[in-house]
Specification:
This protein has about 525 residues and is mainly alpha-helical. About 75% of the residues lie in helices and about 0% in strands. The relative contact order is 0.12.
Length: about 525
């Protein structure tokens, strides 16, 4: 085609031919050339229809899932469950090995990304090529979800059918918390792809994937270490009744004297007779010397005291809690001179057994009350940080109360302080949770990230913050529940270590980040 200048020269030279078909064709070409110069940008293509968008999304999802599904199926056909696991993990394993090798190789000898080779194969197969970070994140998420779906059933079969105990143990570990692994696979892979691409660094993507995946494994429940509350209450009741049949009970006058002393001491906390009806009623029952203080009566007295802890008045709740602690301390540590009928050796043994069970039950209730209280105060008092902060505050409050801590043994006190402090992973998740967009201030990091790196990066940071907050809360709740179980068991078991957070973190860390290693 002639240039714009040539067309203009021809029109000038042949102006006498104006109106002829040849002249009009050249004039039209010249006009189109003028418009092209005035508007260099071509017109925007029409918006794709919903149907075409759906088909493209399905193609990108298939692009991510098919390689893992194909490799897993091929491995399973050749070698059963071990082959299915190996095949489904082949691509991320190759990607991780390539990343490690490229760390040591010079720039000119870098190994091409295995994921990049697979990408080229998928393109030649006719699947749509992802455009932009969001579509590539969808592709990565589909691949990770397909990998988890292929691996976990095979690992479950290997956990029961592998030839050796080591193989069975490894398979059982890797199959830990399958539901959590499935849930973590796509979000952690999408975070890895998004961050890795944003910073053009696959190792940053691996870190982001691990951080996003770890909270999904947090809070995986372990089996209780002690008897249930109901079982221990029944055992304590039976032991007390056995002692009661042998004539053992607390001397009513001894309990009345102790109650009078407690009443006097509580004046320093603001207690005044006649102002707090529920506390007055409890003291009147404690000082009643006409009723025998056997097991049934002790149970009734404790219920009366605990009723004050449910009062809508905060001062009444505080006084009732103090009175309950004093009552429990007396029942557990009353001197032998305060008892009636201790001449029976078997009766005394039954009473000691009952007190031991009662002690374990009472100490377990301390942590059940902390859980119940934190659910309310976590919503009302700690709106932004929620239940996790409320639990931490209650545990610190307990450790800073020497009088209440005396109820626990030295080893139990150490476990309570450890739970109040929190572990390293728990504190990392707690820090991440501060970036959860639960308020105006906490939403600023996500909004700032979205403004600099785009909406997907901001959403990834917000999602990681929410996951961190949920993980920290689950870990804190589990630590308090473990304390309650431990108190009911009467022993300090070794800390229960769950591998689930490491497994879900690993799923995010070893997600292929297509194309970055070859750059």
């Amino acid at each position: 085609m002639a240039s714009r200048e040539e067309l203009a020269q021809w029109i000038v030279a042949n102006k006498d031919k104006r109106g002829t078909p040849q002249f009009e064709v050249v004039a039209k070409a010249y006009q189109e050339a003028e418009e092209s110069v005035a508007s260099p940008n071509p017109p925007l293509p029409p918006e794709p229809s919903l149907g075409s968008q759906f088909m493209r999304g399905a193609g990108i999802t298939a692009r991510g899932a098919l390689p893992t599904m194909a490799l897993g199926a091929a491995g399973g056909a050749l070698a059963g469950p071990p082959g299915a696991v190996a095949g489904s993990m082949m691509l991320p394993a190759a990607e991780a090995l390539t990343a490690g090798a490229n760390l040591m190789l010079p720039q000119g000898s870098q190994i091409p990304s295995p994921s990049g080779a697979v990408q080229n194969l998928m393109t030649r197969a006719g699947l749509p090529v992802p455009v932009g970070t969001q579509e590539r994140a969808i592709e990565a998420g589909a691949g990770a979800l397909a990998g988890a779906g292929a691996q976990l059933p095979a690992l479950g079969r290997l956990a029961t059918s592998a030839a050796g105990p080591i193989s069975r143990g490894i398979s059982e570990t890797l199959a830990t918390a399958p539901g959590r692994q499935i849930a973590s696979s796509a979000p952690s892979a999408m975070a890895a792809q998004s961050v890795g691409e944003t910073y053009e660094n696959p190792y940053a993507g691996m870190v982001a994937g691990a951080i996003t995946g770890a909270p999904f494994g947090v809070g995986s429940r372990s089996m209780a270490v002690g008897p249930s509350k109901e079982a221990l209450k029944e055992a304590s009741s039976q032991s007390f009744k056995e002692a009661e049949r042998m004539g053992i009970q607390i001397n009513p006058e001894a309990l009345a004297g102790r109650a009078s002393k407690i009443e006097k001491d509580m004046r320093s906390l603001g207690y005044v007779s006649g102002i707090y009806p529920q506390i007055d009623a409890a003291f009147n029952q404690l000082k009643d010397v006409t009723r025998p203080k056997d097991f049934a009566e002790l149970q009734a007295l404790r219920k009366i005291i605990r009723a004050g802890q449910g009062s809508p008045d905060s001062q009444t709740r505080m006084l009732a809690g103090e009175l309950k602690d004093e009552f429990d301390d007396y029942v557990l540590n009353a001197p032998q001179s305060d008892f009636i009928g201790t001449s029976s050796k078997m009766g005394a043994q039954a009473w000691n057994n009952a007190r031991n069970q009662y002690s374990r039950l009472m100490k377990g209730e301390v942590f059940e009350d902390i859980l119940a209280k934190s659910e309310i105060s976590g919503i009302t008092k700690y709106t932004q940080s929620g239940t996790e902060n409320a639990l931490a505050a209650e545990l610190r409050k307990l450790t800073n109360n020497p009088k209440r801590m005396r109820l626990f043994s030295k080893s139990e006190q150490a476990e309570i302080r450890r739970a109040a402090k929190g572990g390293n992973l728990q504190n990392i998740l707690r820090f991440m949770g501060k970036m959860a967009p639960t308020g105006t201030v906490s939403a600023l990091p996500s909004l700032g990230t979205a403004g600099v790196f785009g909406p997907l990066a901001g959403a990834t940071l917000a999602g990681a913050g929410l996951a961190g907050r949920a993980g920290a809360t689950a870990m804190r709740e589990q630590s308090v529940e473990r304390l309650a179980d431990m108190m009911r068991a009467g022993v300090v078991p070794p800390p229960a270590t769950s591998v689930a957070p490491y497994i879900t973190a690993g799923r995010g860390a070893f997600t292929p980040v297509p194309g970055l290693l070859s750059q």
